[in-house]
Structure formats: structure tokens, C-alpha cells
Design goal:
Largest interface: A-B, 20 and 20 residues
Strand content of chain B: under 5%
Mean pLDDT of chain B: 79
Strand content of chain A: 35-45%
Oligomer: heterodimer
Structural class of chain B: mainly alpha
Distance between the termini of chain B: 45 Å
Number of domains of chain A: 1
Number of strands of chain B: 3
Shape of chain B: flat
Shape of chain A: globular
Number of strands of chain A: 11
Helix content of chain A: 10-25%
Number of helices of chain A: 3
Structural class of chain A: mainly beta
């Protein structure tokens, strides 16, 4: 948990401008990932996940956040990683918006992501964000929006609109409408 | 040269060896010659075949160049062929017999010896002449092959093949054969030599040595050969012969021994005989002389006897008177003697009694002395016992007081100290346990703090997110959220540190409690050990008291003993002095009685002597009377007899004379017998020495 204030001072602003991007960084396995701060509704401790019958296979279940029912996807499973047994204490749920129906839509657009821990709010200049390396591009990894360099750290930027495939989005939308 | 035949005659094995070697050498020579001839013809045929095929091949390929008069091509062909080391020369002639190849290309100059041959035939450029010179100089077979063009001979290929290689090969073969045969010859000859030595020569040598020893007279040797072949039979026959000889010699020796013994015995008999006859002769001589002497003595005796007769008559009457008086003396003497005897026995009895007394007094004295010395020893040891009893009583006293004052007190102190240590250890263990409990409750408080910090951090994060989404309006709020987050982070790190500290405190307090528990156990052990020591000390005290009492009793008893010993010692001393006095008195008594005994003994001897003398006197008197009477009778008889003897002795003298002459003749004959026995003995001895030479 080092230096979020340092980045704040460097950025001079809280909002995402044309020059800088505000990210919430989190850990899945050993890697650090970033999500645009605007696509995050809230960060909460892991809530009790209730699996529902006839749910799509990639969804763990649903949680009840202050009366709102939100489907949950475990990013650790989705990234093909084992769930580390000692990480339960630091684990968080990121409540995101825009994953199911695109940015700007309201209501049932929320999706919970289980991660190994949330690190900080990060300001990063756009020129320090590289496009996805050609080697990493593919059907499995098209949710990667780029790679940000902060000092000698690398932050993998996640595009929230592409975290689910089209079929999954449709499946979830149908489930949500039903 | 003279040694070799001698050696041949002596050694059978050498004969075998050289015969086999000679046969193998002859075989080698014959085989070598046959093989070399055969190989030579074979090799030569193959060489000629090779040459023929080569020449016809050259004829075929050199046809065109020959027709075209291409001398360079012909030279190439020929020089190529001449590289073979079995070919001495090759050249090509045309139909007219002129050589179409150069001298240098046609002759194989690399072949050894060719240069020398060519230098002798120098300056002749004609190849035919050179070829003839080479043929003369070395073994070369020449082959000619015509070059034909439409059945017309246009030229001739002439080729010389050297036989040098063939000879070398044959030489190698022959040398190899000879070497192989030489090795074989040596091996076979050695094998035959060894076999003959083992099978024939060794047994023969044994038989020979046995025969030699028989010739030297030793018949005890036998030949040790067990084979059943001819040699074995020879050995068996030899053994049988030696056995028979041995039996014969034994018989001869036995009979010669018995002859010797007989001769010896006869010799002994003869010697005896000679001695006997000589003795006889001497005895006869002696007998004759003594008979003569006797004859004269008898005559003198006759005169003496008559005088004696007269005097005996006178003596007889005087003797009868003396005899009567001596009878009276004898009677009185007998009485006296009996009285002396009685006195003497009484004295002897007394003396014996005195001697016994003296002996028993002496033994009494020595016993008394022994008693006195042992009483002295006993009293000395009693004194030692007394002093050591006193010492042990003192020691026991000291031990008791030390054990009571120092040992018991220190053990009690140790027990008290142990109890205090135990209490303190228990109390500190309780304190430490309580401390551990406190640390645990601090830990539970810390988890609450951690939870609050975590929640605060989460709130700050969410606030930052909301602030960012609020845009410009949320800017101030964002700063606050960052500050809160920082605070939460700092709290989290310090709570982590505190929880680490508490964990170590808990661990250390647990360790301290364990150490304390060990201490308590050790203190428990110490308490047990000190109480054991106390019990042991109590036992020591009891035992020390007992030993003190015992030594007191011993001490008192020894005092009494000492007093008793003193009394005993005095009594023994008295006994001793009394026995000394008695001994002195009995010694004096003994001397006196000895003197008395000696005197009575002498007296008795004198009485006995006198008695016997008188009885003898009486007896002698009577005897004399009787003797005198008989003498006078005998003398009368003697007188008559002496006259008869004198006539007899005259006859004896004459008989002795005759015996003397016969004995002389006997002695002579015995001497002759002795001589002949000696001759026989000498012959028996020489026979025996001849036989002795043979050892059976």
C-alpha cells in the first residue's frame, strides 16, 4: 500500500481528463490490473454468494447489495488461476457498471468481480499507456485495453465492456430481464 | 670325438633324442625341397598367365597407335605397364622388327639390379640387345604377343617377367617350414626323451643299482617297480633272484655258525680234558709224596703212644681229688648269686621310675613356659583391643555430634529453602500465565482495531471513487478520502507490528511457563532427595549410637579380661618356678640312681662270673676224669691200629706209582686232540667271515 498520495499530487486532478486516466488497481494472482474509475460503482468486502439454478456457467451466483441483486464473476477463475487459500482476508468485490449493457445504461447493468485485493486509486498519463502487445492479443485476451507503465510497475488495463463475450452478455441480459 | 660315442653308449635317452632329431631333420629337408619345387611351378604358371593376358591386352590397345605411328601414345602405354614390379621390360616392335618405343619407357628402371646390367651392356641402343642382356643377367621369362590387323601381323609386343619375387616368396616359405619343423623337432624329441626316461630309464637305473648292491654283497635291496611291462618283469625277476640268494646265504650262515659253535664246544672240552689230565698228574704226584710222609709219621706215632699211656694213669688219680673240693665251692656261690640278682632288679626298677618322673617334669616345664608366653601374647592383644575400642567409641561420639549438629541442621535448612523455591516458582509461573492471558486479550482488541482499519480503508477507497465520479465537485472530498486512507494504512501497519509483538510475548510467556514447570519438577526432586538424605542421616545417627555402645561394652570387658590375664600370668609363673625346682631335684636323684645301678650291675656280673667259673671248674674236673679214662682206652686202640696202617700204606705207595704213568699218557693224548680242534675252529672262523660279507 505505497504511494497513492504521490500519484494524487502528480495528477493535480481527481477526474479523468484527456491527458490523464484515473484507475482503480487490483490484484488477481501475482499481476496488477486497472479499471477505469468511472466503471466502478463501489468496492465491498466479499458478500455471501448465492448460486441460482439455471445460471450461466461463468457466473458464480448472485449477491444482495443493499437490496440490489448483482451477478458475480470470479476473475481468478476467469483468468485461469487457482484461488490462493490465504488470500481470503484481502479479497474484495468490485461492483462495476457497463459490463453487461455498455456504459451509460442504468439499472441491471451491475456486475460483481471477485479479486485478490484492491490496491489504490492511480492517476496515469495517457502517453504512458501502450496498446496491447501483439503476442497477448487473441480471442481469450481481447478484454485487455492496454498496458500502463508506472515507474517499473506494469498495470494491465481491463476494458470493462469486453470482460464478457457477446454471448455471455446476451445470456446475462436475458437472465436479468427474466 | 672320443667322448661322444662313450656318451652314446652310456645314455639311452641321448640315443633316443638324437635319432628322433635326425629323423625330423631329414623329413624337414625332403618336405622343404618338395614344397619349394611345387610352389615355384605354381607361381611361375600364374606369372606367365598374368603376362600373357597383359601382353594380349597391350597388343589390342596399341594396334591403332602402331598403325598411326603414334610413338608418344605407345610410350605412354608401355611406361604405364612397366610400373608393375614383376615386369622387367615391355616394348613394341613393328612388323619389320624395329622397336617403336623408347628405351627409357620400355625398361622398368625401378626394378633392383637392372641399372647394373644395363651399365655393362652400355651404349647399345637396340632394345632387343638390351632385353637379351637383362635375360642373361637375371631370371626373366619372355612373352611375345602379336599385334594383328585383319589377320595381318603388324607388330609384336615383347614383355620380360622377372622371377625375383617368386624366389623371394619360396625362400620365405622354406624358412617358415624349417623353423616350424625345428620347433616341432625339439618338442617331440623332448617328449620322447621324458617318456623314455619315465617309462624305461628310471626303472632300469633302479634295477641296475639293485644288481650293483647285490654284487657288492648287499642283499637287502629290492627294486620298487610296479609296471607289468618287460621292465616290470625284469624287476620282478631281479627281486625273486635276490630273494632266493638271500635265503641261500641265510642257510649257509646258519650252518657255519653251528659249525663254529661245535668247534668252540669241542675246544672247551679238550681244554678241560688237558687241564684235568694235568691236574690228575699233579694230584697223583702229591698223593704219592704224602703217602710216603704218612708212612714215616705212622712209625713215629707208634712210639709216642706207648709213653703217653704211662703218664695218663698217674694224672687220673690227682684229678679225682680236686673235683670233690670244687663241688663244695660251687654250692655256696650259687646262693650268693641269687641274692645279688634280687638286689639288682630292685635297683633297676627304682631307676626306671626316677627317669619317668624326670621326663614328665620336663614336659610339664615346657608346657608351663608355653602357657606363660601365650598368656603374655593374649594380654598384649587384649590391650590393643581395649585401645581400639576406646578410639572407636570416641569416633562414634564425634560422628554422632557432627551428624546431629551439622548434617541434620543443614538438611532442614535445605528442605526449608526448597519449599521457598517451590512456592516462588509456582507464584512466578502464575504471574507469567496471567501475563500470557493479558497478551491474548490485547490480541483480541487488536483484531477489532484491524477490522475497523480495514473498513476505514475501504470507506476511503469508495469515497475516492465517488469523488472521482463527482468530477470537480468531489475534488475537496477526494483529498480528505486520501488522507483517511493514509491514516487507515498507518494504523494497519502499526497494529500488525503490535500483533507481532504480542505473538512473541505469548510465545515467550509460554516458554517461561514451561521452564517454570521444569523448575517446579526439579524442586520436587530436590525436596525428595533432601528428605532421603535426612532419613539416611538419621540411620547413620542410630548406627553411630549403637557402635558407641558396643565399643563401651568391649572396653569394659577388656578391662576385666586384662585383670584376669594378670592373675593367670602370676599363677603360671608360680607353676613354672615349682617345676623348675622339681626338675633340678629329679636330675640329682637320677644321677644318684644311675651310679647305684651301675654298681649293682657290676656286682651282679662278678657274682655271675664267679658262679659260672666254679660250675665250669666242677664240670671240667669231671670231664677231665672221664677224658683221662677214655684217653687211656683210646691210646691202647691207637697203638693197635697204627701197626695195621703201616702195612696198608706200603701197598698204597706201590699203587700210586702205577697211576702216575697212566696219567702221563692221558695228558699226551689230550694235547693232540686240542691241536686238531684248533685247526677245525680256524676253518669255521674263515667260513663265517666269508658268509658275513653278505648282508641279508
Amino acid at each position: 500500500m505505497r504511494g497513492p498520495n504521490m500519484n494524487d499530487k502528480k495528477g493535480h486532478t481527481n477526474a479523468t481528463t484527456d491527458d490523464t486516466m484515473q484507475l482503480v488497481t487490483f490484484q488477481v494472482g501475482a499481476e496488477e490490473y486497472g479499471l477505469d474509475i468511472r466503471s466502478i460503482a463501489e468496492v465491498v468486502r466479499p458478500l455471501k454468494i448465492t448460486p441460482l439454478p439455471r445460471m450461466p456457467e461463468f457466473v458464480e451466483g448472485v449477491v444482495n447489495l443493499r437490496g440490489v441483486i448483482i451477478p458475480i464473476v470470479d476473475l481468478r477463475k476467469r483468468f485461469g488461476l487457482e484461488v490462493a487459500p490465504g488470500s481470503a482476508k484481502k479479497a474484495r468485490m468490485l461492483i462495476t457498471r457497463g459490463a453487461v449493457r455498455g456504459p451509460g445504461s442504468a439499472g441491471g447493468d451491475l456486475l460483481g468481480l471477485v479479486v485478490d485485493g484492491v490496491r489504490e486509486v492511480l492517476h496515469i498519463p495517457r502517453q504512458q499507456i501502450d496498446p496491447t502487445p501483439a503476442a497477448a492479443r487473441g480471442l481469450q485476451a481481447d478484454f485487455i485495453g492496454g498496458v500502463g507503465k508506472v515507474g517499473d510497475r506494469l498495470v494491465i488495463l481491463v476494458d470493462i465492456t469486453k470482460i464478457l463475450s457477446r454471448q455471455e452478455r446476451e445470456a446475462l441480459a436475458e437472465a436479468g430481464d427474466a | 670325438m672320443s667322448m661322444v660315442p662313450g656318451f652314446f653308449e652310456k645314455s639311452l635317452s641321448a640315443k633316443f633324442f638324437f635319432i628322433v632329431a635326425a629323423i625330423l631333420v631329414v623329413c624337414t629337408l625332403v618336405a622343404g625341397i618338395v614344397i619349394s619345387l611345387r610352389e615355384r611351378s605354381l607361381l611361375k604358371n600364374s606369372l606367365l598367365d598374368k603376362g600373357k593376358s597383359l601382353a594380349s591386352y597391350i597388343a589390342k590397345i596399341s594396334r591403332d597407335p602402331l598403325i598411326m605411328k603414334d610413338a608418344i601414345r605407345l610410350d605412354d602405354i608401355v611406361s604405364e605397364v612397366n610400373k608393375d614390379n614383376e615386369i622387367a621390360y615391355t616394348f613394341i616392335e613393328d612388323a619389320k622388327g624395329a622397336a617403336q618405343t623408347t628405351q627409357f619407357a620400355s625398361i622398368n628402371y625401378r626394378m633392383p639390379g637392372i641399372e647394373g646390367l644395363l651399365s655393362t651392356a652400355a651404349k647399345e641402343s637396340d632394345l632387343r640387345a638390351l632385353a637379351t642382356a637383362i635375360k642373361r643377367g637375371m631370371a626373366v621369362s619372355e612373352i611375345m604377343a602379336p599385334i594383328k590387323f585383319d589377320d595381318e601381323t603388324v607388330g609384336m609386343v615383347i614383355m620380360g617377367l622377372s622371377e625375383v619375387n617368386i624366389r623371394r616368396q619360396i625362400a620365405v616359405t622354406v624358412i617358415f617350414l624349417v623353423a616350424l619343423n625345428a620347433i616341432m623337432a625339439v618338442l617331440i624329441a623332448s617328449a620322447i626323451f621324458l617318456a623314455s626316461k619315465r617309462l624305461i630309464l628310471n626303472p632300469l637305473a633302479q634295477i641296475s643299482s639293485a644288481a650293483k648292491s647285490v654284487a657288492a654283497g648287499d642283499l637287502s635291496r629290492t627294486v620298487d617297480v610296479h609296471s607289468s611291462d618287460e621292465v616290470g618283469e625284469l624287476a620282478y625277476a631281479t627281486n625273486q633272484m635276490v630273494g632266493d640268494l638271500r635265503g641261500m646265504i641265510g642257510n649257509v650262515r646258519k650252518s657255519s655258525d653251528s659249525v663254529g659253535e661245535v668247534a668252540q664246544a669241542m675246544h672247551g672240552i679238550v681244554v678241560h680234558l688237558t687241564d684235568g689230565s694235568q691236574e690228575q698228574h699233579a694230584a697223583v704226584e702229591e698223593a704219592a709224596s704224602s703217602v710216603n710222609e704218612m708212612h714215616f709219621a705212622l712209625k713215629e706215632i707208634g712210639g709216642g703212644v706207648e709213653d703217653l699211656n704211662a703218664t695218663v694213669e698217674q694224672t687220673s688219680s690227682a684229678v679225682i681229688e680236686t673235683s670233690a673240693s670244687s663241688d663244695e665251692v660251687a654250692r655256696t656261690m650259687k646262693d650268693l648269686s641269687a641274692m645279688v640278682e634280687e638286689t639288682s632288679t630292685a635297683i633297676a626298677q627304682m631307676s626306671a621310675a626316677i627317669r619317668e618322673i624326670a621326663g614328665s617334669v620336663e614336659s610339664l616345664s615346657s608346657i608351663a613356659e608355653g602357657t606363660a608366653s601365650s598368656v603374655g601374647e593374649i594380654s598384649a592383644s587384649v590391650k590393643e583391643v581395649e585401645s581400639s575400642a576406646l578410639q572407636s567409641a570416641k569416633l562414634a561420639e564425634a560422628v554422632t555430634s557432627d551428624a546431629r549438629e551439622i548434617g541434620m541442621r543443614s538438611i532442614e535448612k535445605a528442605i526449608d529453602g526448597m519449599r521457598l523455591i517451590d512456592e516462588e516458582t509456582r507464584r512466578s509461573a502464575e504471574v507469567i500465565n496471567r501475563l500470557g492471558g493479558r497478551a491474548e486479550s490485547i490480541g483480541s482488541i487488536l483484531t477489532v482495531i484491524e477490522d475497523i482499519t480495514d473498513k476505514t480503508a475501504l470507506l476511503a477507497l469508495n469515497a475516492a471513487i465517488l469523488a472521482a465520479q463527482a468530477g470537480e465537485h468531489g475534488k475537496g472530498f477526494s483529498v480528505v478520502a486520501v488522507e483517511i486512507r493514509e491514516l487507515a494504512n498507518r494504523t494497519a501497519s502499526s497494529t500488525q507490528e503490535i500483533s507481532g509483538l504480542i505473538k512473541s510475548v505469548q510465545e515467550e510467556s509460554r516458554e517461561a511457563v514451561a521452564v517454570m514447570q521444569k523448575g517446579v519438577a526439579l524442586v520436587e526432586d530436590g525436596k525428595r532427595l533432601t528428605s532421603d538424605a535426612g532419613a539416611a542421616l538419621k540411620k547413620i545417627l542410630e548406627r553411630a549410637g549403637q557402635s558407641r555402645d558396643m565399643s563401651g561394652i568391649i572396653s569394659r570387658a577388656t578391662v576385666e579380661q586384662t585383670a584376669g590375664m594378670k592373675q593367670v600370668s602370676e599363677a603360671v609363673e608360680k607353676v613354672s618356678s615349682m617345676t623348675r625346682q622339681i626338675a633340678r631335684a629329679t636330675g640329682e636323684q637320677r644321677i644318684g640312681s644311675d651310679q647305684i645301678t651301675r654298681a649293682s650291675e657290676r656286682m651282679r656280673e662278678i657274682a655271675r662270673f664267679v658262679t659260672s667259673a666254679t660250675t665250669e671248674q666242677v664240670k671240667a674236673g669231671k670231664d677231665i676224669v672221664a677224658a683221662v679214662e677214655t684217653i687211656s682206652i683210646k691210646i691202647g686202640q691207637v697203638h693197635r691200629a697204627s701197626t695195621e696202617v703201616r702195612t696198608g700204606s706200603d701197598l698204597i705207595v706201590k699203587a700210586i706209582e702205577r697211576i702216575k704213568t697212566i696219567a702221563k699218557e692221558n695228558a699226551l693224548q689230550a694235547d693232540q686232540l686240542g691241536d686238531s680242534v684248533q685247526v677245525m675252529t680256524a676253518q669255521a672262523v674263515s667260513l663265517k667271515s666269508d658268509i658275513e660279507r653278505f648282508r641279508v
